[in-house]
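Dear colleague,

Following up on yesterday's call, I've attached the two folding results inline so they're easy to grep. Please treat them as preliminary; we haven't cross-checked anything against experimental data yet. The first protein's sequence and structure tokens come first.
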Amino acid sequence: MLSTAARQAHILAKSRVPAANFGLAARRFASSQVQNEASKEDKATAVPSPEDLAKASHLPHISNVEMPNKDINLKNKLEKPDYEKEGYQVPEWKKAFGETFVSLFHIDMDNVRAGTIGGSKYYYMCKDQGLQFTDEELSETAVFWYDTLGLPRTFAMWFQITTLHVWLLFVRMRAMPFKMGKNYQQKLVDKLFKDIEMRLSEEMNVLSGQIRDSYMKDFHSQMLGMIFSLDEAFAQKSDDVLAAAVWRNVFNGDKNIDIVKLEAVVRYIRMQLYVLDSISDRAFGFGDFEFVGPNETVDLLTAEDKAQLLKMTKMKFEPEDGKTLPSQKSKLSLDE
């Protein structure tokens, strides 16, 4: 589990809209929790979501025309693979063949999942948070970053938003067994820079390999600097240091920063850390995590809630008949 830094989320208390997808079992658990309406007192004292908090502010929108263009061919390249799309079902014959192959050759599925989950699903989740193109409607998450917070709609800003979410996943990956966590991190970073290189070429029309390499080095340096500053805040368990890191890296050190909007991003980060701290290695390693939306808040889990969540997680990953499919075997813990 993560350090107690993730539990410094007093800003989340008394909210009655559990929004985190802790996995399928936890989603059902969260859904059952919202059946009872909050009392009038709770409603009066409920903490607003990051988006609602930011909307109460008045920082002017920063217009910027430096947005990527997208044609049909590029759109196809940027889309998620079929197996990441909602509702996709693997044919039964492929499932049977895959299980036989894994069993016969003793495939390390934890290693495989580092690529399919860390380097695919989790990367697309990070990438999608601030993804935007000219003349296209913004997603709900992108609206928060560009419209509500007023950040410039540029390629560089997309990279900063993506890197912020990559760091959030890094925090959780470091809490996994060392080799597995490093593998997940490496696959995530590899996919990030492979995608950036493709987007520079296809979207931004940077056709010179030398110029692309120069941009790639700059993005790499920015990523290291941002991760270092966020790590410092996490290690010190300080919202002040975290706010300073966000101010430098997300708001580009704007001297006219609206503090309310800065607080909204800090609150957003603390929400994600709390959710990441609340799921087991097994659930996280299998991709049973989604970022909490900026328009949502999270209930703090009681001891009973945590016990119920653990029970549901074990029900999902430990079949009652005790027979685990070869592809579902893992050394990752269900308890932490």
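Below is the second protein, in the same order (sequence, then structure):
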Amino acid sequence: MTGTDSGDPMVAVTDRGLAYGDGLFETVLVRDGVPLLWNEHCARLSRGAGRLGFEAPAREWLDALPGQAPQGEHVLKIMLTRGSGGRGYRPPIPAEPRCYWQFIPFKPMPERWEKGVSVRLCRLRLARQPALAGLKHLNRLENVLARQEWQDDAIAEGILLNDRDQPIEATAMNLAWFDQGQWWTPELTECGVEGTLRRVLIDKGLLSIAKTEDAPLPRFLNSQSACLFNSVQGLWPIVECFDSGHQHVPGQWPIDGPVRRLQDGAHTLMGYQFNFPTS
């Protein structure tokens, strides 16, 4: 495994991650040198490398990274590529993967935890590709184009739909809504990123997976409550939704007990201080 940190500016122009997006990345919240949801991040990186057909770094090698963080809260960004070699799109066998990493100072947004956020529906539609579904791969042009659709800072996130107008995720966060007495999050068998916080919340029984065919856009828009979450920002309640023409759509949600209870569960996992009422 070849590795380089943010202090080394050299990236090979032949690196397949740069040339083709042939690789994966993780963004890990690190607090005073301790990584949050670390087992889940390492497991996702390993699963992704296996799907792409090359080796992930050894766990012992990865375990040495978070301890290099300065004190305080940082995001550890790990980028794993197939390395260089091969001819055109044909990958080298065996591959010689490279791993790049850096620590980025981070401050959460507690006002968004407390007051919630406004979102919009993106015009861009996610392509269905089961071979890549769930992976946090380096080719994120869909997300870039979707995020380019708005510049209004009052809109915190954009909701991404597939080509059948079914909600899948936000540009950088997972999505959930509350109805029928439980929290639902879209299945990600055709597209979307399987977030580490999402996986833990499902494993703990706090989230249920909604089959794509059972989750049309009106089900999300007419739900009782809704939220966004990831393993860095925590959980943001959604309070209103606009369409791509900046008009309100039916989705307007209170910050109610179900939101606060799920938020409390998520933030406990992440070590965030959370003092908002849960009832």
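For the second protein, one point worth flagging: The two ends are 50 Å apart (CA to CA).

Best wishes,
A.L.
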